[in-house]
Design brief:
237 residues, eight-stranded antiparallel β-sheet
Length: 237
């Protein structure tokens, strides 16, 4: 009798099992990248960089001084992945990238037929419940404006969508069950379109459901695809 195959499990399958809720980042980057440092003074175990050049080309040069100039922005170099965490979430995060298809109707053709389906768009959405409701996340939910006082922070709605309301490189990063691989789904430009809705309950922390939609940059060329990418990052020993 032939052996009965009981599972589709492969030797490397666990590398492809995405496990856990993942982490949501903005300003996500991978590979060699530079981030502004918030150190007030140079630390002996760190290397810092300054920007030189202009719009034609920016170059990061190593800083060799002993003190920082208060009018200059300094950066640190990273070789892995990084970004700014959106904050604590609950019940996980859902990502969907959905193409839109249109079937061309032809008299006499009663079934779907190769060559008669046209892609006519796509949509990218990230949904999560954020419980880390600081002023930045509340402002982001409303695409509003925030003002800081000595004793209070005030957030208000506004009548327009500003350039600063769009989020750069919004990414969900999740690990495989054996920690050998990470998967990052990156929306290069995203906007929160869900607003603010709080439902407070006893014995429960309150969260706001965020819906982030992917957007393309305004261009006469980039009109039919969204700037979405999926990065598979393998851990190195």
């Amino acid at each position: 009798m032939a052996n009965t195959i009981k599972t589709g499990l492969r030797p490397d399958s666990t590398e492809n099992f995405i496990f856990g809720a993942g982490v949501l980042y903005k300003n996500f980057s991978y590979g060699t990248h530079y981030k502004q440092t918030f150190d007030k003074t140079p630390q002996p175990d760190k290397t810092y960089y300054q920007i030189t050049g202009n719009q034609g080309g920016i170059v990061y040069i190593e800083f060799s001084g002993d003190t920082f100039d208060e009018t200059t922005v300094y950066f640190e170099k990273y070789e892995s992945y990084g970004g700014d965490k959106i904050g604590a979430t609950k019940d996980g995060t859902k990502v969907s990238v959905t193409p839109e298809y249109t079937d061309v109707e032809v008299d006499g053709v009663l079934v779907k037929m190769k060559g008669l389906t046209v892609k006519t768009g796509e949509k990218g959405v990230i949904e999560t419940i954020v419980v880390d409701l600081d002023s930045h996340n509340i402002t982001r939910s409303l695409n509003g404006i925030v003002s800081y006082g000595s004793t209070a922070t005030t957030i208000k709605t506004k009548s327009n969508i500003a350039e600063g309301d769009y989020i750069s490189n919004l990414a969900l990063v999740a690990r495989s069950v054996n920690d050998k691989k990470m998967l990052a789904v990156v929306f290069e430009t995203a906007l929160c379109t869900s607003g603010l809705e709080l439902d407070t309950k006893n014995k429960s922390i309150s969260g706001n459901k965020y819906t982030f939609e992917a957007y393309a940059e305004q261009s006469d060329e980039n009109v039919d695809t969204l700037p979405i990418k999926i990065i598979e990052i393998k851990e190195t020993a």
